[in-house]
Write a structure and sequence with these properties.
Layout: E1 4-9, E2 14-15, E3 20-28, E4 40-48, E5 64-69, E6 78-81, E7 91-97, E8 106-108, E9 121-123, E10 126-128, E11 139-147, E12 153-161, H1 172-186, H2 188-192, H3 196-206, E13 211-216, H4 222-231, E14 240-246, H5 251-260, E15 273-276, H6 286-289, E16 297-301, H7 310-322, E17 331-336, H8 345-352, E18 355-363, E19 371-378
Parallel strand pairs: 2-10, 8-11, 13-14, 13-16, 14-15, 16-17
Antiparallel strand pairs: 1-3, 3-6, 4-5, 4-7, 7-9, 7-10, 9-11, 11-12, 17-19, 18-19
Helix pairs in contact: 1-4
């Protein structure tokens, strides 16, 4: 599992350009139902907001130690010194990290020790002005590094809501599966040498040929964004589509995250396309049905938290599989972290419709329940 630095009490949208601002940091799991059990140093830095300056990722000031977070002081307000040389009318983001070395505000999806420390967080811009009225910040961002070709890097900026809406926050399996997909794309020999299923997944997701990919329950979109960025490294991979789906309530944030990372995609086919797909609907959206010869891959992460939705999910998967001709059964890729043992009933329900999954990898993070990667396909066409 992973832990995340976040704001129990975020900074305001506006503050006076003198003195300090007050925040209450938090270190907890993805759903903020389990606090970090231990002592964790937290560092702060400031990232200047300059809309006229194009940068691959936000620059930050030298990180300074802010506090040592413990459960015993989890609700304590902490003053944060303002940026040095701050002037009236300037805007900055507040950055909280678990260490102060290198680029601590960037989550490296290629790191072998991904998640060993709590993930950093960036606030939304704070306007420092003596005029106007302050409001409450309701969103945060996290920054992810994706290694591309020839030593180049891509940087994903993923925005989340600070509310408890389940489709508007990052979940462990989204990060864990994205990390595994980065390794699958960058280290194919190592990843596929002992797993035929990994070879199937790589061919379905990262072939230079045209590929049609759909994600179910996309949430903030990190998995589809990662796939689109990785596929964009292939110069000839300019056909096909990546459709990223969720409920209507998830669309505004999903659309924003796709737009904010548009520079990573080298063609419309690589740019994820947001679409409402409700598993409870009896029919698939017309844009899904219209995909020629169905999908090469169906991708899911953290779709198992509500066991009552399993019949609808399985029906949706069966309908998607039936779009493909018998010789082209889609590869199914699932990122999963167990939260309740009853979730494992999904596997037997999938087998009832001919889908058999095999566990071929995981991401352990800070310990506890690992993010598991399962891959399979339909053995009997439905």
């Amino acid at each position: 599992m992973f832990f995340y630095i976040s704001f129990l009490r975020p900074p305001a949208t506006q503050s006076y350009p003198s003195g300090s601002i007050s925040i209450t940091p938090q270190v907890a799991n993805d759903l903020r139902t389990e606090l970090f059990d231990g002592a964790q140093e937290i560092y702060y830095s400031w990232s200047p907001v300059n809309p006229n300056r194009a940068e691959p990722y936000p620059a930050i000031t030298v990180p300074q130690k802010l506090t040592v977070w413990r459960q015993s002081s989890a609700y304590k307000e902490i003053p944060v010194p303002l940026p040095q040389g701050l002037r009236e009318g300037q805007s900055y983001r507040l950055v909280l990290t678990a260490h102060g070395q290198g680029r601590p505000h960037i989550i490296n999806l290629a790191a072998s020790d991904l998640g060993i420390r709590p993930f950093p967080v960036l606030s939304m811009p704070i306007l420092f002005s003596s005029r106007g009225r302050a409001g409450k910040q309701e969103q945060i961002e996290r920054l992810y590094r994706i290694p591309l070709q020839a030593g180049a890097n891509g940087f994903l900026t993923v925005r989340e809501q600070t509310s408890f809406d389940l489709d508007k926050t990052i979940w462990d399996s989204g990060i864990g599966l994205s990390s595994w997909l980065v390794q699958l794309a960058q280290e194919p020999d190592q990843m596929t040498s002992n797993h035929a299923q990994a070879s199937l997944a790589r061919e379905a997701l990262f072939s230079t040929n045209s590929r049609t990919i759909i994600e179910l329950g996309a949430g903030t979109g990190i998995v589809s964004l990662t796939i689109g960025a990785l596929r964009s490294t292939a110069p000839d991979a300019r056909k096909g589509c990546i459709i990223t789906t969720d409920l209507e309530s998830a669309m505004p944030l999903l659309e924003h995250n796709i737009s904010a990372n548009g520079s990573l995609f080298n063609s419309p086919a690589m740019r994820p396309r947001p679409l409402v797909l409700d598993w409870d609907d009896e029919t698939l959206p017309q844009d899904v049905v219209a995909v020629d010869e169905g999908f090469d891959a169906i991708v899911m992460a953290d779709v198992t938290y509500n066991t009552a939705s399993f019949p609808s999910l399985v029906r949706t998967l069966s309908a998607l599989i039936s779009l493909s001709p018998p010789y082209k059964s889609p590869v199914i890729v699932l990122g999963y972290k167990e939260r309740d043992a009853a979730e494992r009933t999904l596997w037997s329900m999938l087998e009832d419709v001919g889908v058999k999954l095999e566990k071929i990898g995981q991401r352990e993070g800070a310990g506890g329940q690992a993010v598991e990667v399962w891959i399979g396909r339909c053995k009997v066409h439905v």
